[in-house]
Every structure is written in C-alpha cells, then in structure tokens.
Amino acid sequence: xxxxxxxxxxxxxxxxxxxxxxxxxxxxxxxxxxxxxxxxxxxxxxxxxxxxxxxxxxxxxxxxxxxxxxxxx
Length: 73
Description:
The protein has helices at 17-20, 23-72. 74% of the residues lie in helices and 0% in strands. It is built from two helices and no strands. The termini are far apart. It has 73 residues and is mainly α.
C-alpha cells in the first residue's frame, strides 16, 4: 500500500490556484449529477404515489366485494 502515499508533498506557496480548481469540467459533472438526482427523486415520488393509489383502490375493491358477499349470503 506504500504506492498510495504521495511521493512529495507540495509546498502551499508553490500551488497555482488556477491549476487545482475543478474548472468547467467539474462544474458540468456536478451539475449533471444534480440533475440526475433530481430526476430520480421525481421518479421515486411518482412511483410511490402510484403504489399508494393502487393499494387504496384494492382496499376499496375488497371492501365492496365483502359487502356484496354479505348481501348474497
């Protein structure tokens, strides 16, 4: 694991801040990631809502079938 260690530590005085910034590429990647996360959240909410509506509809149908069975019996 020694190859993970840096060979030399740069002196903070010699680091050029224009070279170490993420730049346009970093902004585009971060923006794209944020867009993907928002779209996934919207999709998750839509699917959760649809599932909840299905469960409510099934409960209503089961209740109607039970009432119909009581009337027939």
